[in-house]
């Protein structure tokens, strides 16, 4: 259920008026609906309930400590991509044996740390990495648990910067070569083969791509079994798309039919269940994306020839998705006055032409001091925020019914010098 709704013209997150949160905690401000995060996780977990499975939350989407602790309490595992993420996942109480670790550039220190921690699997991205991992594990007198990441060469037709499963991308080992790599890995004293991994991209809305991925994985695993290589799990990656919502439908420019987790799970389970192996799924965006919004305050209204600019106090350093991927985020006022609208660019204060949250957007007339909510910012929002232009990163608050709690303080420039 969407926990961001209007009541008598006021935008609410659960039972809290968003404007009151902005006034109390200041802007720019990330706010999250705790119950929406819980519901999203449970729906995904439930969708896979007919098979043995682990839902490894892709922490890159949002690694706030309170959100990670919530994930741990719900029984989630973690999909990590750095020693830093592994550290945070363990600190949050996510059991090591539910953590999978992908990344094309794991360092020796990171590999050691993960072996010592006892993670579920490394998702190995190259032969070179496999060799290094083998040597490190041998020197530690241990075996590294490995799932080899195959690159299935599936084009999910998304933004090129978030596509990962095509053969031209840097991720994984070419599916045609991967079989031989498994054979080599089998002979390595420091390697224990535990699974196979693939990830085809992000913001995927067409479930046929998962079906294609599952079929490639099925064939591949059957070949492995025939060659006497037995694995325990199949990791299908993450990537389930979300709704970039239309809580004021007349202002929504993009609508997408978002598949429910069960639609994904059913397609994958239909193909893979006969193998009788554990299925690992690594969702990030579909757990936290819709549950978060970035709140900004209007600083100035500016007219320049034919363009109206709404200058707000949040910029590309706070939410880079529009600048980096030309991503669409609906922007709505926290107080909805009437249905008159204007076309405007919503821009931030950063000294870059690419610093915008929306271009040519249909928006209700707003004034200096009003607040705007940039929706669906819970994933890859704060986690991609930076200090560019020496701007402290925003505060984060989550709402549980009538209660709002600060879950990360706003940074302060004074801490830097
Ligand atoms: N597993 C692997 C191996 C991944 O590379 C990713 C995301 C995920 C899981 C989680 O995907 P999700 O369920 O969140 O789609 N910054 C971009 C998205 C980059 C995704 C990178 N990999 C954005 O803001 O759209």
Q: Could you characterize the architecture of this molecule?
A:
- The protein has 11 helices and 21 strands.
- The chain is elongated, with a radius of gyration of 22 Å.
- Strands 4, 14, 15, 16, 17, 18, 19, 20 and 21 form a 9-stranded mixed sheet that branches.
- By secondary structure, it is α/β, with parallel strands linked by helices.
- The two termini are 44 Å apart.
- The chain folds into 2 domains: 154 residues, Lyase, Ornithine Decarboxylase, Chain A, domain 1, CATH 2.40.37; 236 residues, Alanine racemase (TIM Barrel, Alpha-Beta Barrel).
- Helix content is 28%, strand content 26%.
- Strand 17 and strand 18 form a beta hairpin.
- The longest helix is centred in the middle third of the chain and has 19 residues.
- Helix 2 packs parallel to helix 9.
- It binds ligand LLP.
| Total of helices | 11
CATH class of the largest domain: Alpha Beta
At the fourth level of CATH, the homologous superfamily of the largest domain is Alanine racemase
User: Distance between the terminal alpha carbons, to the nearest Å?
Assistant: 44 Å
Cα-atom radius of gyration:
22 Å
Structural class: alpha/beta
Q: What is the overall shape? A: elongated
Could you tell me the number of beta strands?
21
Q: Give the total of domains.
A: 2
Q: Name every ligand kind in the structure.
A: ligand LLP
Mean model confidence by pLDDT: 94
- Architecture of the largest domain, according to CATH? Alpha-Beta Barrel
CATH fold category name of the largest domain? TIM Barrel
Q: Which band does the percent of strand residues land in?
A: 25-35%
Which stretches are low in confidence, meaning pLDDT under 50 for 5 or more residues running?
none
The amount of helix comes to: 25-40%
Largest sheet: 9 strands, mixed
């Amino acid at each position: 259920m969407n926990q961001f709704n209007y009541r008598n013209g006021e935008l609410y997150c659960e039972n809290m008026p968003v404007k009151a949160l902005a006034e109390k905690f200041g802007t720019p401000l990330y706010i999250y609906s705790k119950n929406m995060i819980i519901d999203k996780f449970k729906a995904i977990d439930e969708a896979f309930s007919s098979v043995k499975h682990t839902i490894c939350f892709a922490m890159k989407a949002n690694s706030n400590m309170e959100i990670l602790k919530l994930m741990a309490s719900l029984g989630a595992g973690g999909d990590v991509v750095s020693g830093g993420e592994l550290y945070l996942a363990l600190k949050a109480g996510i059991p090591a044996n539910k953590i999978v670790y992908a990344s094309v550039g794991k360092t020796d220190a990171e590999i050691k740390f993960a072996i010592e921690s006892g993670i579920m699997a490394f998702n190995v991205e190259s032969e070179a990495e496999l060799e290094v991992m083998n040597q490190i594990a041998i020197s530690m007198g241990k075996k590294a648990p490995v799932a080899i990441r195959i690159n299935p060469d599936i084009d999910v037709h998304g933004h090129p910067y978030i596509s990962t499963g095509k053969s031209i991308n840097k991720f994984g080992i070419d599916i045609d070569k991967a079989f031989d790599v498994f054979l080599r890995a089998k002979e390595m004293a420091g390697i224990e083969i535990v699974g196979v991994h693939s990830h085809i991209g992000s913001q995927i809305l067409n479930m046929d791509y998962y079906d294609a991925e599952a079929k490639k994985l099925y064939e591949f695993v059957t070949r492995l079994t025939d060659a006497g290589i037995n694995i325990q799990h199949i990791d299908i990656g993450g990537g389930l798309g979300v709704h970039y919502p239309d809580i004021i439908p007349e202002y929504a420019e993009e609508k997408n039919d978002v598949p429910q987790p069960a639609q994904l799970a059913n397609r994958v389970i239909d193909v893979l269940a006969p193998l009788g192996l554990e299925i690992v799924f690594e969702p990030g965006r579909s757990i936290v994306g819709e549950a978060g919004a970035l709140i900004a305050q209007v600083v100035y209204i500016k007219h320049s020839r034919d363009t109206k600019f709404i200058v707000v106090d949040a910029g590309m350093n706070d939410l880079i998705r529009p600048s980096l991927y030309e991503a669409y985020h609906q922007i709505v006022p926290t107080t909805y006055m009437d249905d008159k609208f204007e076309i405007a660019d919503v821009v931030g204060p950063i000294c870059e032409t690419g610093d915008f949250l929306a271009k040519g957007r249909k928006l209700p007339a707003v004034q200096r001091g009003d607040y705007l909510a940039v929706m669906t910012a819970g994933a890859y929002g704060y986690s991609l925020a930076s200090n560019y232009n020496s701007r402290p990163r925003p505060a984060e608050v989550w709402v549980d019914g009538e209660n709002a709690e600060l879950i990360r303080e706003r940074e302060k420039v004074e801490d830097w010098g």
